[in-house]
Amino acid sequence: MNSYTFRVEVADAKQLSQALSLSELQYIYAPEQLLTADLPCKERIIAVPPVFLADCGEYLSKRLAQLSQMGYGKVLAHTVDHILPARESGMTLYGGARLNITNSASAAFFAQQGFEDIVLSVELTRNKLNSVKSPIPKGIVAYGRLPLMITRRCPVNDGKPCGGREQCDKMITDRQGRQLKTLCRNTVELLNPDVLYLGDKLRDFSADFFLLKFTDENDLSQIIRRYQNGEKPTGKFTRGLYYRGVE
User: Fold this and answer.
1) Rounded distance, CA 99 to CA 95, Å?
2) How far is 207 from 162, CA to CA, in rounded Å?
3) pLDDT in tens for each of the 247 residues of the chain?
4) Which of 210, 211, 224, 247 is paired with 126 by a 20 to 30 Å CA distance?
C-alpha cells in the first residue's frame, strides 16, 4: 500500500459521516451548512463556503464567526474574496483549486497571505504542475466529477434561480447524448459525465497531498482503498487536462 496523503471533499451529510470514520484521511472539506456543534474531529474539517459572495458576504462573515465559536478552525478560500471574512473569524485559510494557482509566483503570493496550503489549478498539465515551487504544501485534485460550469441560474428549471437543493435529481443531456449531473448548493454545478481518475498515476505528480472530490458516490472507502493500492481505473474515466493540456 502506498503512503500518499489523501484528503476528501464531500457533498452531503452521509458522505461526511463516512469520511469522519476514516482515520487515514488528513482533512475533510465539507460544505459549511453541514457543520454542527456536535460533530467530532473538528480539527480535521475544512469548512467550504459558498462560491460566490456577491449576495452572501454578510451571511458568510456571521457564519464563520459562528463556526469558530463551535470549535472549527479551518476554512477553504475559493477566491480572494474569502480572505477577509476568514481573517476576521480567526480561522486558518486553505486554498482551493478555484483560485486558479498555476505558477510559483501565485503560490508565493498566497503563502504571503497566510494560507496554510493550496490546491493547484486543474487546468495545469502534469509537467507544469510539477514545476510549481511553493513555500507551502501544494496538492492536486486527483479524483471526482469536475465542474464544467458554475451558474446561479438552474439549467434544468427554466433558468430560474437555484432552489438550494442539496442534490438535484435531474440532468442535462449534451449534444453527444451524455448525461451531465448537477450539484445544487445555492449555485448549480454542471459536472463532467466522466470521473477524473488518477489512482494508478499518483507517482507521476510532485504533490504533498491528493484531494478526492465526491459528489454522488455512496461508498467513499472503496475508492480511497483503490487509490491507496494504486489500482487502475474501471469503466468510463478521464485523466482531465493533466496529460493533454487545454485544447
Assistant:
1) 7
2) 35
3) 568 999 999 999 999 999 999 999 999 999 999 999 999 999 999 999 988 766 677 889 999 999 999 999 999 999 999 999 999 999 999 999 999 999 999 999 999 999 999 999 999 999 999 999 999 999 999 999 998 888 877 777 766 666 655 555 677 888 888 888 887 766 788 889 999 999 999 999 999 999 999 998 999 999 999 999 999 999 889 999 999 865 5
4) 224
How many residues are recorded in the chain? 247
Per-domain boundaries in the chain: 6-144+195-238, 147-191
Nearest to 189 by CA among 112, 97, 74, 105: 97
Distance, in Å, from the CA atom of 235 to the CA atom of 199, rounded to the nearest integer, reads 14
CATH of region 6-144+195-238: 3.20.20.70
Per-residue b/e over 126-153, b at no fewer than 16 CB within 10 Å?
bebbeebebebbbbbbbbbbbbeeeeee
Answering whether pTM is above 0.90, one says yes
> In what order do the strands lie in the sheet containing 179-184?
147-151, 188-191, 179-184, 171-173
Cα separation of 106 and 141, whole Å? 18
Number of CB atoms found within 10 A of residue 63's CB:
20
Position 195: which residue type?
Answer: V
Among 84, 98, 203, 198, smallest CA distance to 144 is for 198
* Burial category of 95 from C-beta neighbours within 10 Å (exposed 0-12, middle 13-18, buried 19 and up): buried
CA Rg, the chain, in Å? 17
